[in-house]
């Protein structure tokens, strides 16, 4: 209980300091509540969730007693809003879109509903069909507290047609040095060499950057919780990332996140993009992409550490404070069931199926055909990610693109702002890391005091 109270107090203070309580237009707290047979869903505005909203009338037709209300937010807004509401026991959301970062921690704090019995008592749901690494990452003490909607690692996407024309053969697992050379070679007045995230946010620029830091031999903390963000390995990795995106990357890189890079690449404006494996749902969709069938896919680039891609899943959970848990589970089970996968494929196209969640998805003949270019490399990337050993040197934390500690939301956000400033040219990488080191030292000392 004391730990819960401390966590609640810390998050509430962070919310106040960081402006996490959003204003009108972002579905502000307390302006409405989930009641009766209305299920209110807080979700990130990405393509897979947009598809779910488009198909939600199918759920309402099958469940006439339940109405759905979607609150759609940008990634940074969603993280802030959902965290503040769930931590404080708010009743405005019945279903929250979270991840394998929040789920185990929030389950330990008592903020989420245990979904294991719901899953076991739902005929045909088959929770054992979820990719094991994802299922385990969403569990606490052997029970699932959120279920994967889609799972992802990270990989390199490149314009295979242009690379073939240039005589460049991309291996299954390239190096970052190769990627930088290709970016330089492909960069030109009509097309940039690569798109890399630069937008502030621990789930934005830090997601790809942390995998670069890991494979360059860097780490956030050593085994004694001494901060390492100004170490030579981290500085070399961050300097490489910043130089690459500034010299060969997209315009306004410091404001580019997943969505912006998806637009750049899908509209044929960039030769490469390193990001989430789930991006295939956008790139291979003829309705939104001009590069369908022209894209090659390779494992996350490396330097010293193999299999440097991240492991992540957008998942659906029920806040413990919700008064509408049964109806919320009905919606969650519909949206994460095998039949939903088939519904998306048949209604919207097989390339738009939520990837990387269920093993059975990769046994569907229509999906196998649609995913020939990316299906196997997606699975290999997810299975190759190792959040228990994310770095070259030993570390006291787990997680690839995030640190699985409560303080990382605030720490990661602060560090990401420094990195984004360096990408924008507002300061040097060295200065950005010196300030980041100070932030990390505060967190490190708190763990040193506990030991």
TrEMBL record:
Q: Which UniProt keywords apply?
A: Signal
| Signal peptide range in chain numbering | 1-29
Q: Which CDD domains match?
A: PBP2_TMBP_like
Organism's domain of life? Bacteria
One Pfam family it belongs to: SBP_bac_1
Q: What is this protein's name?
A: Sugar ABC transporter substrate-binding protein
Q: What is the lineage of its organism?
A: Bacteria, Bacillati, Actinomycetota, Actinomycetes, Mycobacteriales
